[in-house]
Amino acid sequence: MAAMDLAYTPKVAAATAPLYGKVAAVVPQIEWPVHAPYVEAINRLKREKNAVILAHNYMTPEIFHCVADFVGDSLALAREAAKTDAKVIVQAGVHFMAETSKILSPQKTVLIPDLRAGCSLAASVTGADVRLLKERYPGLPVVTYVNTSADVKAQSDVCCTSSNAKAVVEDIARERGTDTVIMIPDEYLAQNVARQTGVKIITWKGHCEVHERFSAADIRAYREGNPGVIVLAHPECPPEVIAEADFAGSTAAMISYVGDKRPKKVVMVTECSMSDNVAADYPDVEFVRPCNLCPHMKRITLPNILHSLQTMTYEVTVDPAIAVRAKAAVERMLAVGKPKSA
Ligand code: 13P
Ligand code: SF4
Predict the structure, then answer these.
(1) Which ligand is nearest to the CA of 162?
(2) Using CA atoms, how far apart are residues 17 and 20, in angstroms rounded to an integer?
(3) Which of 204, 293, 297 to mutate to test the pocket of ligand 2 (most atoms within 8 A of CB)?
(4) Residue 57: CB within 6 Å of ligand 1?
């Protein structure tokens, strides 16, 4: 592979100037000469290879605003993976997201720039654990958060994300005529959904290492230090945090809240890059920024996205026998909320 010239030439500066305009509020000018050559090279290579970059809302602003073709929460990324025409998907996110893309689009090449981009929730449960749970609670439907391996999805009746968990649990409980479901592996998401739906939930002791660190005392301290601040929290936070927040929703739902309501001052109780990405779009909103970094999401960088496209690595594959069963659970989730004839 020929070495690529990554100099910040006047040509690169001119080609990337409109993109810098999108992130100028959150990326210091002194950093742009480092990012710009990668941005230009990635966008060129993407076209040459018929590739799309699907980026999660936790990507850093230079990825989120400057090289991504599609950005969103887990649900939106899964929907996009199912419908894109591109030959190659580069997943700027974590491994379970890339697996979900492969499950939905087995004919496409799905790449992840760093195979170590995992997730504490996905690591907390195995397919064998789910089989044991089903033996212990025979007949109960299993609702599985998308933040899991393909093997775990394959053992499940239906998947959910944080944006459709309530609807999915209500849908399967109604269809199976049960007041109890198994919902794994996020204990806090399950407790938050149980409170919203009244459905009894048997859960698992998995936690998101980013969101579990927030406490109710943190939220009270943000309010004390910032009178009038609106608090938005992700449902992976402990229930005591959700109880103190003004609004709880998926990463996409939090972004929509800011876009629709334009609060004067807001705090997003979630991963750090969210506030940066949203602040770039809404300079009129003040962001209070206590946050926790997701070390897995932060493994994805401009240099390794470029490397991924140059070398077509690291390809994510799923055993076809597992993929077929996992796909049924993911597709069932995608159908929830759609008109039955659609
Ligand atoms: P969203 O589906 O809300 O984007 O959440 C994914 C995730 O990993 C949050 O920690
Ligand atoms: Fe997993 Fe939490 Fe990171 Fe999301 S933020 S990928 S749930 S560890």
Answers:
(1) 1
(2) 5
(3) 297
(4) yes
Any ligand 1 atom below 6 A from CB of 309: no
Cα 204–chain centre separation: 20
Closest ligand 1 atom, residue 161 Cα:
2
**First-to-last C-alpha distance (Å) of the chain:** 46
Banded pLDDT at 342 (limits 50, 70, 90): very low
Buried residues in 75-91 as b, exposed as e (16+ CB within 10 A): bbbbebbbebebebbbb
**224 Ramachandran zone, left/alpha/beta (phi>0; psi -120 to 50):** alpha
CA dihedral 221, 222, 227, 233 (to 10 degrees): -130
Residue 19 token pair: 């993109």
251 CA from centroid of ligand 1 (Å): 6
Average pLDDT, the chain: 96
4 band by pLDDT with thresholds 50, 70 and 90 = confident
* Domains, the chain, with CATH or none: 3-118+297-311 (3.40.50.10800), 121-207 (3.40.50.10800), 211-288 (3.40.50.10800)
Q: Note the pLDDT tens digit of each residue in 247-262.
A: 999 999 999 999 999 9
pLDDT, tens digit, 9 for 90 and up, residues 36-55: 999 999 999 999 999 999 99
| CA dist., res. 4 & res. 311, Å (int) | 12
